[in-house]
Amino acid sequence: MRKSTAGELFQESQLMNVVLHQSTDGHFAILHFHQGMEFLYVHEGTGIATIDRKPHPIEPGTLLYFQPFQLHKVEMSGSPESRYVRSVFFVNPVIAESLLQPFPELYAFLQRLLRGRLSDQAFRVGKDGEIGRLIAQFREDVIRLPKSHVQEESMLFFLQLLSRLRKSSGQAESSVETPRSPHHVEKMLEWLELHFQEPFSLQRLSDFVYLSPYHASRLFKKHTGLSITDYLNVRRVKEASKLIATTQTPVKVIAGLVGFQSDAYFCKQFKHITGVSPSHYRRRLT
């Protein structure tokens, strides 16, 4: 197990990165996305998760699922004495698909999770339910696992989690896959992921997906809920927060590294998105 920033423990494997996190500083809010699948289980804390502009109440025993490149906001409420304790599992879709090839029904369910338009992405599994107990036990075990055992145990855990989630969600019966968003939007997200640190050109992006700049902007806003500019700010701030937490690079330098052209604008966006200034964010981690 590897310790990172305050309150975080990481365990890594080819299939899955596991983050065990505990916050004790009251209010918590973050708008972000990931390239892979994300499962977030809440052990302690209450709040709201916003996915595709739809709010989902969070309470202990809630399991949230976020699709690749799906923007979502997690906002936890509470006093400085309250705790937000969660287990987060970031899954590599390519490895997951390979793992599930021998299991047709689980593989079909995985495809729905990856690419389907899901009716709900917040599962009330409960702390004492089958899935809640499975996650709690894995959280306890993974802290003690030697590195040589992580890959195997992660695969076994993921198979059990997916199997039980499939049975409890009721989505296994549907054989119709409804795409969650147009192919153009996913291609735009992929392009932005490659080029977010560069000066942005709407013309270059729209040329990449063979759309007019006007159509590309409207399509992106319709299906992500954010303008391209707002999305870029979120992505750049996410990268900046990682650099602030893991390096001693000056904040002004980080602003340029992640694509901001103005230090003042970077600081304004960082506080707007994370709730604190870059300097406060760094102090909080020490």
From TrEMBL:
Coiled coil: none annotated. Signal peptide: none annotated. InterPro entries: AraC-bd, Homeodomain-like_sf, HTH-like, HTH_AraC, RmlC-like_jellyroll. GO terms for molecular function: DNA-binding transcription factor activity; sequence-specific DNA binding. It comes from the Bacteria. SMART domains: HTH_ARAC. Keywords: DNA-binding, Transcription, Transcription regulation. The keyword Transmembrane does not apply. Residues 186-284 form the HTH araC/xylS-type domain. This is HTH araC/xylS-type domain-containing protein. It comes from Paenibacillus flagellatus. The lineage of its organism: Bacteria, Bacillati, Bacillota, Bacilli, Bacillales.
